[in-house]
Specification:
Helix content is 77%, strand content 0%. By secondary structure, it is an all-alpha fold.
């Protein structure tokens, strides 16, 4: 199903769109550092893959616990204040790495990561739906994919820059992890000051404009959970997060555990994979200005399922090539599922966004992958988990595509 090319955003929204898009880079950077931290803490603190998975569990638990509160906050105070509050928490958690490094205990770092996770929840709950609103409805999915492309750029900078710093010459000790976090924390607080002083337009839906009374948050939640397609979209997004975050977190452990390369080389390879991911989002954004999002999601769903099946063949070059190719196909999935699930929800959009932002808790799936790898000594078997996740995404895409016919 083709559609006529329409502009990505409206002229009056250009400045807000640029500012909001810059946030996607920041949380991409923050989330990708976790994929390097796993192996770094295994080296420096002598912990297992399963124990290091608590990094993802703790961070994404912040998403799960703070998603609905952040949605209620944004419903009441607006997108801009939601962004500023998220940036303040993000910056505070990053700077906490300085005393945590002095303490030198794994669980102190987890506390700082939880604060960062809470901050990122506010940012993503505000920025994802806001990006879909800053322009024509017809290009909402394409617009969110474009903004999310800079998320991929942030991921690349994190795995390459921080990976080079922490895995100096494949040295197990590497650099002090507090350094990149301190720099990031200071930068984030500066950005918070900028956002506190700019005016971002609040988007009002027709339903809101016609109503004199604010809609109850609990009433919104009841309406959403009675919407079957919303629940299917929520399930698909959770399945995607299980697959995508687990693969990223497991990547370095996988290629080093297979004996294919050392830590620093693995950090370079995942940077290359994230470059493929970023290019995939830019290309996907361009294609979806002409092709229906449901069709694109279906094609990419098939691609990810095939790639995971090839990884499970356990043939060195084929498995590695398929793993990297998977980044191209999965690139458009989060923003596309997110946008399709929000489509047509009107004044339920902010509440729906907060629920959807609970789905990064799927990153805890890495804990299961780590348990399988540690208990069996087999680094291939855990890939059944992302295979199932991508199969659920494909089922959602097929359902949406059939509903549009």
């Amino acid at each position: 199903m083709e559609k006529k090319k329409i502009s990505l955003s409206n002229r009056q929204y250009i400045v807000p769109f640029v500012l909001i898009t810059s946030l996607f880079f920041m949380w991409g950077f923050a989330r990708a550092i976790l994929d390097v931290l796993n192996k770094h803490f295994q080296n420096t603190l002598d912990i297992s893959i399963t124990q290091s998975a608590l990094i993802q569990v703790t961070t994404y638990l912040g998403y799960f616990l703070m998603a609905i509160p952040s949605g209620l906050f944004i419903n009441r105070f607006g997108y801009r204040r939601g962004v500023v509050f998220g940036l303040l928490l993000f910056g505070l958690g990053s700077l906490l790495f300085i005393p945590c490094s002095a303490m030198g205990t794994f669980y102190a770092f987890l506390a700082a990561l939880f604060v960062i996770g809470c901050g990122l929840t506010f940012l993503e709950t505000a920025a994802n739906p806001y990006a879909t609103e800053l322009g024509p409805k017809e290009t909402a999915t394409s617009r969110l994919n474009f903004s999310q492309s800079f998320n991929g750029l942030g991921c690349m900078f994190a795995t390459f820059g921080v990976g080079q710093f922490l895995f100096k010459g494949d040295n197990a000790d590497g650099g002090n992890v507090a350094v990149p976090y301190a720099i990031m924390g200071a930068l984030v607080l500066v950005i918070a000051v900028v956002f506190s002083r700019v005016s971002l337009p609040e988007i009002r839906h027709d339903e809101e404009a016609a109503s004199d009374q604010p809609t109850s948050g609990t009433a919104n939640l009841r309406r959403l959970f009675s919407n079957r397609m919303f629940l299917f979209g929520l399930s698909a997004l959770l399945a995607y997060e299980v697959a995508e975050i687990s693969i990223n977190s497991y990547f370095i452990n996988f290629v080093t555990g297979q004996g294919w390369m050392g830590d620093q080389s693995a950090a370079n390879v995942i940077t290359g994979a994230l470059f493929v991911f970023m290019i995939g989002r830019f290309i996907g954004s361009w294609i979806m200005r002409r092709v229906a999002a449901e069709t694109m999601l279906t094609i990419c769903g098939v691609g990810t399922v095939v790639c995971m099946a090839l990884v499970l063949l356990d043939i060195e070059h084929i498995s590695l090539a398929a793993l990297i190719a998977n980044y191209l196909f999965e690139a458009i999935m989060f923003p596309t599922i997110f946008s399709l699930t929000l489509n047509g929800l009107g004044n339920l959009t902010k509440s729906a966004s907060s629920i959807l932002m609970m789905t990064p808790v799927g990153g805890c799936g890495f804990l299961l992958m780590g348990l399988i790898a540690d208990s069996t000594g087999n680094f291939i078997t855990p890939f059944f988990i992302p295979l199932v996740g991508f199969a659920i995404v494909l089922a959602y895409a097929l359902k949406k595509r059939s509903a549009m016919k």
